[in-house]
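Figure 2 data, in text form.
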Amino acid sequence: MYHLYSHNDLDGVGCGILAKVAFGERVEVRYNSVTGLDMQVGRFLERTKGKEKQHEGLFITDLSVHQENEERLDQYAEAGGKVKLIDHHKTALHLNERSWGMVKVQYEDGRLASATSLFYEYLIDNGHIQETKAMDQFVELVRLYDTWEWEQTDALEAKRLNDLFFMVSIDEFEEKMVRRLKESDAFSFDEFEEKILDMEEEKIERYIRRKRREIVQTFINAHCVGIVHAESYHSEVGNELGKTYPHLDYIAILNMGGKKVSLRTIHDETDVSEIAGTFGGGGHAKAAGCPLTDEAFKLYVTEPFPLEPLRADAFKNVYNVKESDNGSLYINRDEDQFFLFPGEHGWNIQLNGVTQHETFTSFEEAERFIKRNYAAWLARDEAFVQYLMQQVKQAIQTTG
């Protein structure tokens, strides 16, 4: 009998689906949260203590165990137990030192690995499953979504697979996918799924529009952070808010009901897995999560609570546009005016009529400075025209 303990997201459930295709009724699959795995592993080790171990096989996928369970799994393996942990998070790389650990973050060709892709290769290499076109396609869609490479390659089917995963129960999704992988020559969605996925896409877009109006900005441990409360669509919300507000180092998405924080970034220089690790969490460089500890609650909830939401840049302007040779006007909630204009040595900032000493090499750098430090946004044309009229009036009064 095999036992597979995996994560409860698409990548983790992908491993469970492959296990059921490979082993059928001979595998028990249980899905766990990040914090629930060690309890599950502990119960397994207690249950098998003193029993014959050659008939029991344990797989752990898309999650890693704490140090105490590392030692206990070593003892289990030394006593003849079959165990294999397969993961792709860099925070688990130290488990490669264990005989039962197989952790790989990236393939030799540069592609990022997922637990499903690594487990699929393991099952093929060990003769547990035969490679098929349908499984190849399914595994690749899971990998593309989990590593967020789907957006770089415009592989929308990967995102739609994750959307479908969240629209039905895990049991229903698992049953559908197992049957499809066993019976189909190629992987695809059926007509009904396509229709409900189209509807879901519109629902997600509406949800993201609402969250754009709710995000607040603050500094946490030297990072400029966007904070938003959201129960659903964390990856989509984090990614879209990151693109809307690229001056933010990362987006923190708070799920108060689940007492969790999801962290997302679009920047290569920010590693949110390290940030999550300070609160007992982990994940990938651009997508991670952690429990809402007392310290995290203070930093992400209590202290930012009085802040007003960010305002988005005006997007229908004709005259006040970004990077204009005539300058661009920004404002903030304190009614400060920031006029960005090109000079002889770069871009300058005029704050409330006073030109600042610092010069920036590009418009983007100057804009990033005022957005991070003053939470400013691009003013509408009406405010820009009024600003210009005021400047002309002042010039006339000065020369007169």
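Caption note: The radius of gyration is 26 Å.
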